[in-house]
């Protein structure tokens, strides 16, 4: 089964703080995604990438940067964290192909005080 | 604008009963649907996918798709307490973008 790992699993920071969330997949998948999940909103796409060095903007990108350094690693950066970014963040990967299933990591719970 | 609408928001069914969940896309460029299941405190996992008109059955789970109305439904027969979870519908647009709905929270009562 596909393996996607995320770190840290939990993070608490203060308003204005700097946060980096990490994601690694070992499935040789081309596509990687960052989502946030809030009660009542399902999964909302922040950024995604279809290869090292590539970055695509999702539906809720404001306040977030992302970087795909290798095929395996995808990072989400919050440079000036705000309380509105308190959420559960999921990373996912999928193979290239139009109908590929997404495999999700375990999630990172971020709290911005 | 929400591109994928799910109903109902929540659903309670008795153990052994039938659960029926609905999902509709407002985007005419959608051509593929997935159903994901997310147990409490866990990450979403794909349950079933469908892109052809008609139905697809896997064990106790059946998915229907009407491409003309861009409506898909998930039916769970003989529901078990372990089926209690958030069910997320996802739709793929022809430009390869995928959108998730807000989910249906299913509770199966023993």
Question: Could you explain how this protein is built, in words?
Answer:
- The complex is a heterodimer of chains A (113) and B (110).
- Chain A is an all-beta fold and 113 residues long.
- Chain A has no helices and 11 strands.
- Chain A has strands at residues 4-7, 10-13, 19-25, 31-37, 43-49, 56-57, 65-68, 73-78, 87-94, 103-104, 108-112.
- Chain A starts with a strand and ends with a strand.
- With 110 residues, chain B is mainly β.
- Chain B contains no helices and 11 strands.
- In chain B, strands 2, 4, 5, 9, 10 and 11 form a 6-stranded mixed β-sheet that branches. In chain B, strands 1-3-8-7-6 form a 5-stranded antiparallel β-sheet, with no helix packed on it.
- Chain A binds chain B through residues 35, 40-45, 59, 90, 98-99, 101-102, 104-107, and chain B through 6, 32, 34, 42-46, 49, 51, 88, 90, 92, 96, 98-103.
Give a summary of the structure in a few sentences.
The complex is a heterodimer of chains A (113) and B (110). With 113 residues, chain A is an all-beta fold.
Low-confidence runs of chain A? none
Outline type of chain B: globular
Work out the helix count of chain A.
0
Bulk shape of chain A: globular
Spatial separation of the terminal alpha carbons of chain B: 38 Å
Mean pLDDT of chain B: 94
If you compute it from the alpha carbons, what radius of gyration of chain A comes out, rounded to the nearest whole angstrom? 13 Å
- Biggest beta-sheet profile of chain A: 7 strands, mixed
Greatest chain-chain contact:
A-B, 17 and 20 residues
* Estimated share of beta-strand residues of chain A: over 45%
Give me the secondary-structure category of chain A.
Answer: mainly beta
Total E-strand runs of chain A: 11
Strand content of chain B: over 45%
